[in-house]
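Session log. Operator J.P. requested a structure for one protein chain; no other inputs attached. Running the standard single-chain path with token output.
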Amino acid sequence: MRFFLKSSVILFLLVTQISFSQEIQTKLPDTISNWEGKNTIGFDISQIAFMNWNAGGNSSVSGLLKGNFIRKYSTDKMKWVNELIVRYGVNKQDGVELRKTDDAFQFNSTFGYRKDTISNWYHSAKFNFNTQFTNGYAYPNTDKAISKPFAPAYIFTGIGAEYSNKEKKINVYLSPLTQKTTLVLDQRLANEGAFGVQKAEYDLDGNLIKEGKKSRTELGVLVTGHHKKEVWKNINLENRLSLYSDYINNFGNVDVDWQIQLDLVVNEYVRANIGAHLIYDDDIKAKEEVAGEQITLGPKLQLKQVLGIGLVYNFK
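Structure written below.
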């Protein structure tokens, strides 16, 4: 009887141990994930101050807050890349109100599938969204905004092919079928026909007959490129280029959006950067202040140059 009881206890403990071990094994989390993430937050600042300075000058301080957030899902034959880019900068000078220097909210999403693991070519679909956070002005006039959040906003959706070379850090996307939607959700700007939407109609006495449209849809061809390379030790050059032409309205008239930036890495947390942003869009009309009145001119080449040094923090 004692032998039977002893044997039963040993058998029970053995079975319990095996079951417990199996339960633990089935509940162990899978440490292998197809998701990758990278987050970068930076703050650039520049300042100059004068006191009894014989050559003269205005004291000023500028700040730029920026972020870049990437989420990537990939397998042997498929990848899905999502990127969020945000920037907001201001400048303050003696005797001058606070002015905006940079303002961007951009989201990019690209899905790609390839037939084998050798090819660098993917069948791809792309979504892109661009707008801004706050009103924009033709300084010094701050009474009448020339742009606002979602006025404009640009949406690109299309299908095509993408060449992606991870080793050379180059991506080129070609789409013969891309829809571009321009949103101008402020009625005043829409009535003015800002950013290419159909403007309002008025009678001979200036009375409003029909309000301007708040959106415009185009269908065309889109080419984008992204390349990042270490040109020298701790010096990285990054290029982003977007070219778009509408099939129906002035085909061959290309909208250009080109950003180039040179990052000089001091250490893990401190970097200096030199950048330029060039835009040409036939639908964006330049505005100037003449004799206290804001007038609309034709399309012009837009150019922005940035030089800064600041703190950068990367995390996952």
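Operator note: The CA atoms of residues 235 and 264 lie 5 Å apart.
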